[in-house]
Amino acid sequence: MIEKVEKGKECPRCGEDEQDLLEWLNDTDVLCQSCQTTYNPETGEILDSSAFDDPADPGDMDGDFDSGMRDAGFGTDESYGSGASDIL
């Protein structure tokens, strides 16, 4: 049986209301796995996702994509080129 959150606590962006798809990040904030929106279910306020970036974690991919890829041991888009002329 699919468990739903109580009326008014669903994701304010996409309306997701299945408990399994709404991840509690802390005591007040939820991350909707359907649309990646972080919100407060008590107020319905959509929160800035950068508030949950962990600057102490170099593998945190929510910030600068290239530095995250570099830290993970992969090249960046600059490493591989980014234009059609690179293919020729």
Topology of this structure?
Blueprint: E1 22-24, E2 30-32, E3 38-39, E4 46-47, H1 65-71, H2 77-80
Antiparallel strand pairs: 1-2, 2-3, 3-4
Question: How would you describe this structure to a colleague?
Answer:
The protein is largely without helices or strands. The chain has one domain. It has helices at 65-71, 77-80; strands spanning 22-24, 30-32, 38-39, 46-47. A four-stranded antiparallel beta sheet has the order 1-2-3-4, with no helix packed on it. The termini are far apart.
Topology as a string of helices (H) and strands (E):
EEEEHH
User: Kindly state the mean pLDDT as a whole number?
Assistant: 77
Distance between the termini: 55 Å
Q: How many structural domains in the coordinates?
A: 1
Question: How are the strands ordered across the major sheet?
Answer: 1-2-3-4
Largest sheet: 4 strands, antiparallel
Morphology: elongated
Number of strands: 4
Class by SSE composition: little secondary structure
Uncertain residue segments = none
Backbone CA Rg: 18 Å
Approximate strand percentage: 5-15%
Number of helices: 2
Helix content: 10-25%
Short description:
The protein is low in regular secondary structure.
List the main descriptive attributes of the protein structure presented here.
88 residues; elongated; 4 strands; 2 helices; four-stranded antiparallel beta sheet; little secondary structure
